[in-house]
User: Fold these one by one.
Assistant:
Number 1:
Amino acid sequence: MLEIIDIYKRFGERVAACGLSLSLAQGEVVALLGPSGCGKSTLLKLIAGLERPDAGVLRFDGADLSGVTPDARGFALMFQDFALFPHLDVLGNVMFGLRERRVPRAEARARANDMLDALGLDGYQARRVWTLSGGEAQRVALARALVTRPRLLLLDEPFSSLDAHLRQGLQQDFRRLLGERGVPALLVTHDRAEAFAMADRVALLCDGRIQQCATPGGLLAAPANAWVARFIGYENLLVDAVVPERAFRFGPDQPLARVEDCVPQAEGMRVRVSTPEGRFVLSLSAREAAACAGQLRAGGEIGVGIDRGALLRFGGE
């Protein structure tokens, strides 16, 4: 459906996209995950037609988008600041895109009401947008984006300004509605938990390049490199692999590791150790901590080994 092929984009000395390629299938949700400034939002604008690539090809349903204006692409772009129209009530905001497309008023009203109902906003039609809570305003923005039945939905950190409880509820509604309507979506986020919860696949960006694109499970099972592993939350790395918790072995029969610091946890101890293979952070259970309690202090020594067969090799090797 959407094909991004070898895209390049530079702003002065800053490279926003460097040979970037990605595809998106019908009904698929792909998250663009990465740190600030890595090129996520720029890619969204390139797809929407708000920016032009320096080189490369963008296609949708096999058609080249290079000569297609933003309004003719049939995509919906949703930002984190909601961008609701303050002079319109909730119903007017949701109907706006339909009326711009010359959908008859009665049909536009019916479709807008159905979408508000689907998002739990029935009865909000006459509310002024400045009276809405953050979560309500974001639901209105989502309703406005989906009611036009876009060919592709582009979301630029749409939930980042909401608290955790509201964010989780909106994520669930978002996934449900997209699944029901078969709308493909590209979601920009810097939040790993959000990307993993909402996306079928996650593309990790760094300095304008995609480091890896895979399912959340695929990323966790086989990160492509050390940068990917650290970004998705792994702390303990070797040159060629992640050391998951299950790979550590403890006891007097293991090589001695120097304890650098200890932090008590609800059900055990978080311990930082130095070994010949590197520094590692260990989460010891209460039983494991009790077994070596006398040495769980800065300067103490505990036996720590690594089961090489349990390592997660970069790239799945």
Number 2:
Amino acid sequence: MPRTLIAMACLALAGLPALGDDVRWKKHDINARSVFEAAGVFDVDNDGKLDIVSGDSWYNAPDWKAYPVRNLPPVGRTYRDDFATLPYDVNGDGLMDFVSVSYFGKDVFWVENPGKKGATWTYHGIDKPGPSEAAVAVDVDGDGKLDVLPNTVNVVVWYSPELVGKTITWKKHDYGTAAAGHGVGTGDVNGDGRSDLLTPKGWFEAPSDPKSETWAWHPEWNLGSTGIQILARDVDGDGLSDLIYGNGHAFGLVWHKQGKDDKGARTWTKATIDAKLSSVHTLMWADLDGDGKANEMITGKRVYAHEVEPGEVEPPVIAYFTYDQSGKKWDRHVIYEGLAATNAPKEGSKRDAQKDFAPGTAGTGLQMTAIDIDGDGDLDLVCPGKSGLYLFENLTKSK
């Protein structure tokens, strides 16, 4: 059983047939009544099939029968304190566990797979850095192992796995509070081949030895409340990495094109990718069309990120975006678009995603997974949120 996150490893799949048109999708309702905003995909019971773990349940493939994980009562009225599901075999017993974070509990922790259907999974604390709205698994230090990067809004911090015997322990990397905010991300900003650490207030430059040397701080932007991740990548082919992020609590999917002034200093020119998309909280790259390139940027509307904010009752959307270098424009490819919550109560305290939006409405919460869940050679999408848990089957092979 691999220790690293199988979901992220599958993002690099190559050798699939290329398509000239948009990818077609089939929506499957795993649990339309689920309200949890994170979900991971891994083989829970070692039967060779990929299952889905979300909130208080795991769903056994291929019939998606639900089994309990742990009790997660409401916090406040509409939130559950479970904001990531990142698969790791932490204790080396051959069963996949997961790492998670919480906002209200302010902790980073892992949850142990008991290896028996119906048994409760066991919580194990790792650290208590502060309120984390989400977390991603990404190789921050370039050592080939996936680290845990939480969006701890009060501090910039990440955790690298260290193997002691058969058990993983977690080394904490703390960058202080000054650069922290709503959003975090990674990408090679300066083109040196190393992954830098991005925040809404600027970026930390990865040194030649990321594990032991100081990361230089560059306060080159102020983005406000962004989604997770903030991405850095050369999308327009000019050799300079650009910046991509969503406005987490407003309208707008945005990019900043990197340039150089007459003295060679970096410049950033802001432009809009999609002005109609709101509450963007999760972004990632994947190879959805099977051309061997992970150049589809997937995102969507987080359903009721807040019950009252710009665009909150607009139709939920899941989409991927590609950049047309010849036309110098972004193209929007809709995976799913629902209906507006036209009858939602005016008072935010009375709003409920399960009641206000039509049954079966999909959107994004705080985590999406792109993975070949059905083993047919293309990447599918698992999308959790307050309006339900859904699988979008990629129909590349059947086209």
